[in-house]
Automatic annotation (TrEMBL):
<dbReference type="InterPro" id="IPR008457">
    <property type="entry name" value="Cu-R_CopD_dom"/>
</dbReference>
<keyword id="KW-0997">Cell inner membrane</keyword>
<keyword id="KW-1003">Cell membrane</keyword>
<feature type="transmembrane region" description="Helical">
    <location>
        <begin position="176"/>
        <end position="198"/>
    </location>
</feature>
<comment type="function">
    <text>Involved in copper resistance.</text>
</comment>
<feature type="domain" description="Copper resistance protein D">
    <location>
        <begin position="174"/>
        <end position="270"/>
    </location>
</feature>
<feature type="transmembrane region" description="Helical">
    <location>
        <begin position="114"/>
        <end position="134"/>
    </location>
</feature>
<feature type="transmembrane region" description="Helical">
    <location>
        <begin position="89"/>
        <end position="107"/>
    </location>
</feature>
<feature type="transmembrane region" description="Helical">
    <location>
        <begin position="6"/>
        <end position="28"/>
    </location>
</feature>
<dbReference type="Pfam" id="PF05425">
    <property type="entry name" value="CopD"/>
</dbReference>
<dbReference type="InterPro" id="IPR032694">
    <property type="entry name" value="CopC/D"/>
</dbReference>
<protein>
    <recommendedName>
        <fullName>Copper resistance protein D</fullName>
    </recommendedName>
</protein>
<dbReference type="GO" id="GO:0046688">
    <property type="term" value="P:response to copper ion"/>
</dbReference>
<keyword id="KW-1133">Transmembrane helix</keyword>
<feature type="transmembrane region" description="Helical">
    <location>
        <begin position="210"/>
        <end position="234"/>
    </location>
</feature>
<dbReference type="InterPro" id="IPR047689">
    <property type="entry name" value="CopD"/>
</dbReference>
<comment type="similarity">
    <text>Belongs to the CopD family.</text>
</comment>
């Protein structure tokens, strides 16, 4: 049951993060002008991600209910109506359903705000709900900032992969400079909000013992993010004449994205572990 919950958390977090980031970076990297081939591909991917999010979101609810007393309808209703998780999850699933419906209509302009709200409602789930009162609200707000930064980075990398598949059609140097410019803000937000989370949840600058439990998985996550930063810096330093070395650039962006996927997997496991207060 615990393994299924971790896998479900990973899938759900991953698809919601990617949806938000890809939708957010599309106008920033390519402007408002239509790009028919890319837009069709991005719409197909977004619809698939939205359905995966809905399915994994419902599965997450059923797994939580089963861990309490069983997956019968009465237990699910109890979780939805009487627990903090259930109340948040009711809103979350409603937003997910609205996003799915909007993607089946011409109202594509709704996908960014709905995906942002969907991502934000993941903040109170897990460790974000550990504290109450003002401190709890500030922790949730910090977690929202963290999730938005992560989502923008990972979804933006996914969009870059799609762009690089047809590199000859796009001004790569301009696009990469735009991505790098926003990347500085995202990395700063990611690091600051992450350090705040660690300090608040563990009561320390870094949890101990270092090589066990929560601290070990957190260390793995940090190393994966450091690898992403290293690749991003390398690509930034080699941005000039990037149009002539699309192959290595594409491989580097894919590897950076895969490291991000692995970091999200680590976070999915972290959410099920006590932060050793």
């Amino acid at each position: 049951m615990a393994t299924l919950l971790v896998l479900c958390r990973f899938l759900h977090f991953m698809v919601v993060l990617l949806m938000f980031g890809a939708c957010a970076f599309r106008p920033w990297l390519l402007g408002a002008s239509p790009r028919p081939a890319l837009d069709r591909q991005l719409s197909r991917i977004t619809r698939l991600l939205a359905w995966l999010a809905l399915g994994s979101g419902v599965s997450w609810l059923l797994l939580i209910s089963a861990s309490m007393a069983g997956s019968e309808l009465a237990t699910v209703q109890l979780v939805l109506g009487k627990t903090f998780f259930g109340q948040v999850w009711s809103v979350h699933l409603l937003l997910n359903g609205l996003l799915v419906l909007s993607l089946l209509t011409p109202w594509n302009h709704l996908r960014l705000p709905l995906s942002a709200l969907l991502l934000a409602t993941l903040a109170p789930v897990g460790h974000g709900a550990m504290l109450s009162g003002l401190s709890g609200q500030l922790l949730i707000l910090n977690q929202i900032v963290h999730l938005l930064c992560v989502g923008a980075w990972l979804g933006g990398l996914l969009l870059l992969v799609l762009i690089l598949r047809h590199a000859a059609l796009y001004p790569l140097e301009t696009i990469l400079r735009r991505f790098s410019g926003v990347g500085y803000v995202l990395v700063a937000g990611l690091l600051i909000s992450g350090l705040i989370n660690i300090r608040v949840l563990t009561g320390e600058l870094w949890p101990t013992p270092l090589f066990s439990g929560f601290a070990l998985i957190l260390l793995i996550k940090v190393l994966l993010v450091a690898g992403m930063l290293g690749l991003a810096l390398l690509n930034r330093l080699r941005i000039k004449d990037c149009q002539q070395r699309v192959g290595p650039l594409q491989a580097s962006v894919k590897l950076e994205w895969l490291l991000g996927v692995a970091a999200v997997a680590a976070v999915s496991l972290l959410g099920t572990l006590p932060p050793m207060l």
